[in-house]
Design brief:
- It is a single chain.
- The protein is 15% helix and 41% strand.
- The chain has 152 residues and is an alpha+beta fold.
- The strands form 2 sheets. Strands 1, 2, 3, 4 and 10 form a 5-stranded antiparallel sheet that branches.
- A hairpin with a 3-residue loop joins strand 8 and strand 9.
Length: 152
């Protein structure tokens, strides 16, 4: 299902919650560029140049027909949600575009330095990442997530 998520131009985080002890549920939706640009009035934006740019810009949004994915990690070692404006920093190695599986990352470095998780205990683990419009979601887990399309 990662390959299906990677076919989209944009993904948007809809929901993230811990459903019970160590179980993480994430809902991500496909997002697309709207057909129409909003009309911003003089009262809403007095700066003429900025108003012109805004009136020509089409928002990126989730619609009723957008694909929605439910991602469930039955167990995890750690997860983080980062404002996408602050993500990045070190060279990372991964497969995928928006839904990723990392072989090297800052988050794996954190797990190695900030926790006592190792390949011996709890066992081999993997870093999964989801690049959304406003958030980057990182999850380290021993088991791959269950992913299903929930609006089919």
């Amino acid at each position: 299902m990662f390959s299906a998520m990677n076919q989209h131009k944009y993904l948007d985080l809809i929901e993230i919650q811990e459903t019970y002890k160590d179980c993480l549920r994430i809902v991500i939706a496909e997002a697309g560029v709207s057909e129409t640009a909003p009309k911003i009035s003089l009262e809403e934006e007095p700066n003429e140049d900025l108003r012109k740019i805004l009136n020509e810009s089409k928002p990126i949004e989730v619609t009723d027909s957008s694909a929605r994915y439910e991602i469930i990690f039955e167990d995890y070692i750690a997860y983080a949600v980062t404002n996408e404006s602050y993500a990045g920093g070190i060279e990372e190695k991964f497969e995928g575009r928006l839904a990723r599986v990392y072989s090297e990352s800052a988050f794996l470095n954190y797990i190695g330095q900030g926790t006592f998780a190792t390949t011996e205990y709890p066992g081999p683990f993997v870093h999964y990442g989801f690049c959304c419009l406003n958030q980057i979601i990182d999850v380290v887990s021993e088991e791959p997530p269950m992913v299903k399309l929930i609006n089919a």
